What does this fold into?
Amino acid sequence: MPGTAPIGKGVVPIAAAVAAQLIAFASGYGYHRDELYFVAAGHHLAVAYADQGPLTPVIARAMSEIAPDSLVVLRIPSALAAGAVVLLTGLLARELGGRERAQLIAAASAAVGVIVLFTGHLLETSTFDLLAWTAISWLVIRAVRTGHRGLWLVAGGVLGIALLNKPLPAFLALGLLGGILISGPRRRLRDPYLWLGAALALALFAPWLIWQAEHGWPQLDVSRSIAEGESTSAEAWWAVVPFQFLLISPLLAPVWIAGLVRLLRDPTVREFRFLAWAWVILAVVFMATRGKPYYLAGLLPVLLSAGAVSIDEWLDRGRSRARFAVLATAVLASAVVDAVIALPVLPARDADVPVALNEDVGETIGWPRFARTVAGVYDELPSPHRAVILTGTYGEAGAIDRYRTGLGLPPAYSGHNAYGYWGPPPSGLAPVITIGLNPVDRAEHLRDCRFATRVDDGVGIDNDEQGTPIYVCAGPRRSWPVEWPGLRHLG
It folds into this structure.
């Protein structure tokens, strides 16, 4: 019977090992552009931002208060979140009928997954989004299996907090609802505790909704930009499903595929069939809306858990030793390859392959040198050189703000996302150092610009900043309050 097996004794050690590994590698390479943004947002705390909720900036602020400028401390919550995902994946297997070995298979498969390792390495909204999806799924499955109605309230509370991180978990709720409408158990929809949980989630989410409404729903503009491919991790619409084969490991894709098949066909888990339909519904929705492939990754722990039960049964059939060797090889090979892709295992100068496979790795390399390059331009200006530093992206502005104290730089300004709400620069006749601003905006809003130098990360990694020109301009064409609306952009 589902949920009655003992909890696997190896599940907790596997989860702890993942968290420890991530903490050990936390100082590798450097900040990701998004982390620099979240640290900056943590110094501008608000109930909402143009492109996210307040949860990740609050965590960034808390870690910065504990240990200012410590990359390791900043990333500890992410490492713990990844460990929790691995633990919950094992517990999900138990809920779906897995004995101890099945729980270990599920936990081990999650532990070596690229999506778990990479989001656990960085302080990202996606880090806590993956944990939230996994936790909500576990709570919903337990509520259905045990009939404990209070779990719907807990699931609603977790959903509400998750929505204050980013709005993506709302799709999970809609996917699960759609799955229940298609395959049942529809009687659950008559339970007032389920709707009380939904009301709790909405109440927690209300401040974000109110802020967005008051500011013209900028999140929708960000989503449209992503749909148009204006993001490092954006892919073609048809890539949503194929990418799922890569987000854990190609070698372990048969595990989650077996889970999808089992949920759709196995009568012993008939009451959980809605989980498979939720995956199908959301795959279609994310393809139709041109969402990022990792948006669907939140259901992979569920599918891994269901599939681990099938793999466990497969091991008992036929040549069990040979089959176990195949599984062990797949897990170990995935552990090695996925660690190289997701973690700073190689020296930065040799990171070309990881960057080619995962562009976000490149966005963790070169920021201190970037800031020093800007400081070199700043120091060459005539004294007193109270120049304004204006960047095209929040990552570039975040890097200046992170390293400026030791370099004698002023705060950075940018029209990108939340930074656009924190401007404009103070009025005055100061020159402008601009980095990453597109030529049209530079010509339209700034005057008398001259080329100064180019960004070089020093190791030849091809990321979004490598080779970016830096210009020095005499100032804005008109006053900053007049020019600023034209420099703001979302995406």
